[in-house]
Every structure is written in structure tokens, then in C-alpha cells.
Amino acid sequence: MNWLCVRTVLSVVTLVVLVPVGAASQDARRTPWGDPDLQGTFTNKTITPLERPEELADKEYLTAEEVASQEQARLDRNERLLHAAPQRTVAGGNVGGYNNFWLDGGTRPTGRTSLIFDPPSGRMPPRTSEGARRKEVHDRAFPVDGPFASWEDLELNDRCLVWSAGPPMLPSAYNNNFLITQTPGYVAIYVEMIHDMRIIPIDGRSHLPANLRQWHGDARGHWDGDTLVVETTNLRRTEANAAAVGGDPVLLRAANGRTDDTITVTERFTRADGDTVHYSFTIEDPTQWARDWSGEFPFVALPSEELLYEYACHEGNYSMTNILGGERELERTAESQQ
Fold it and tell me: Where is this region: Disordered (predicted)?
């Protein structure tokens, strides 16, 4: 991402064993009006990758020793980078992004080798021919090194429009905190990254007409026992960004609704204990993938002293003006040499 947001509070996430939905307590706490209570301030940060590394093959879970080893390796890396010599930008070179100090992706794995658990390979299913075509269109539309004729040549996350609110609500490199609140008939999820708010009706209303599209789609929820099930359709798309979900985990996180009208995302939220909400998702789009695929990971409650702070993205997004200003300067230089 090309903007700066400072987290003032960092936290260490403890390992949470993922529990099946059916294992939720029969005595789940309730709201005053009787719904299962999912409310709280949580984080979903983890170092577990979206897709299982190929070298792990059919290994689904880590041992306790492997979990401890991965955590220590991440802590050692953070300490090493904290004291590393700075890498200065050279004239005409790539200015790069954040150094490690500004990142807060967590230090612990979930216990799985990937967030994806279905297919059993822990990896996304193959693309269809149409899905491959859309990925190619996307890559041509958003080249990393430009040219940047206007702001529309930059990804939506670079423009401070959408990022990790989902669906699905995948972990990012930082700002992985969010607040869940409930009222009769609604569940709201306030996301720290880009201060997005997902408002989910749970009163049985129908989805919006198919021609009404939104970046985060049209979410409708209902209770299945103690589990909140949220189905999202009507995700906004353009031909250029239609392939953003899939293939590349970064593009998947950045996509947030930028796909076609055949996609459905189903999420499940279950209170596992006082400090944990079990989260899972399934993505269905037969035009892009050979089969559906699903993932899961825990939402872990933040300590009571940790709050969600303002995410000033547009206010500090100097990259937009610098990128576009630099492109105009390159154009002037090229014209002067003709």
C-alpha cells in the first residue's frame, strides 16, 4: 500500500485452537433481546498464510513445537530488522514501502498450515479459462510501474477506498482490528483499516436488486443456532478489476467486492469462548474457479486497554499526488526531448 497509518498500540496474539461450529457452548452468552452475543473488539492478525506452502504438501496442522518455532522466528526477525542498517533510496530508484517497524501482522500461526482448509490441498482451486482471462485483464489494467494517466490507474486500496473489510475478512500486514456491535435486527462490523463499516441486516429482508452493486456487496445475515451466517452478493465489478479476487493473496485482500456478478461469499461467525470468535468463509464463483473454496481462522479479543484509533488514509495519502505528479514530470521530460 502507498499510504502511511501509524498504529500506536501493538499486541501479541496468543495461539487459539480452531474449534468446529458444533463445539460452540450451549450456554453462549446472549444480548438483552436474545441473540447470540458476538460483540467485542477483536484482531484477526496471524502469520499463517492464505495458501499452504507447496513444500508442506498434505500437512494440515502444525505441531506445538512448530508453532513455537515459527513464533520465535518471527520475533527474532522483528528484532533483527529493528536494528538493521537503513536502506536509503537512490536517485531514480524505487522508494519502496514501509519498513518493518510500521507493520503489525502478528507473530503466531493459527495452528493450521494455511487459512484455506478446502480444497484439502490448502490452496486455491485452479482457475477456469474465463478466470485466467480476467486475471490477465486485471494485470494489464493495473501495472505496478505505470504509466499512471489518472488516479483510476491505481488500485482501490491505493486510493483509500477499500481494503480488508471483506468479504472475506482476511488478515493484512497491519490494522487488523475491528469492533463488532449488535442491535435488534442488525450486526455491524467497524473495521480499523480505512475505517470501513459493514452493516448486516438480520431481519430476513431480501437482497438488493441485481443491478445495485456495492464495493463490499450486499450482505444479509441470519442465525443458524449460535452461528451468524452472512451471505454477500451484488459485489461491484469492472472488467479491469474483475479478477482481483483469486490467485494472488494480496489481490484477494485488496479486492473487496471487485469481481463479477456470479460471486457469492458466505461467512460464519461463532462465539467459541469469551475471547474468541471462530470465523470461516466460502467463496463460490464458477466463472473464476473450478470449485468453491473455504478458509477459517480465529478472531481474538483485544485487551480492554486497546482501542480502535482513527485511520487517516486520505489525509496522509501523499503517494497519490507524488505518483501522479511524477508521471506528469516524466511526460514533460519526454515532450522536451522530442
Answer: 27-53, 112-136
Identity (one letter) of the amino acid at 111? G
Q: Is 229 helix (H, G, I), strand (E, B) or coil?
A: strand
Can you read off the three cell numbers belonging to residue 235? Answer: 459485489
DSSP state of 145: T
User: What is the helix (H) or strand (E) element at residue 282, kind and residue range?
Assistant: strand 276-284
**Cα(241)–Cα(139) distance, rounded to whole angstroms?**
9
Task: Yes or no: say if 245 and 150 are a contact pair by the CB < 8 Å rule.
Answer: no
The widest CA-to-CA distance across the chain, in whole angstroms, is 76
Neighbours of 78 (CB within 10 A): 13
DSSP string, 38-101: --EEEE---S--SS--GGGTT--B--HHHHHHHHHHHHHHHHHHHTSPP-PPPTTS------GG
Going by their DSSP bridges, the two strands 293-301 and 264-273 should be labelled as: unpaired
The beta-strand segments (E) located in 119-226 are 177-183, 186-191, 196-201, 218-224
CA distance 115 to 122: 7
Buried residues in 287-309 as b, exposed as e (16+ CB within 10 A): bbbeeebbbbbbbbbbeeeeebe
pLDDT in tens, 32-86: 999 999 999 999 999 999 999 999 999 999 999 999 999 999 999 999 999 999 8
Sign of torsion over alpha carbons 101, 102, 108, 113: negative
pLDDT of residue 237: 57
Phi-psi group of 212: left, alpha or beta (phi > 0 → left; psi -120 to 50 → alpha; rest → beta): beta
Over residues 171-200, mean pLDDT:
94
Number of residues that make up the chain:
338
The one-letter code for the residue type at 64 is A
Query: Which letter does DSSP use for residue 334 in this model?
Result: H
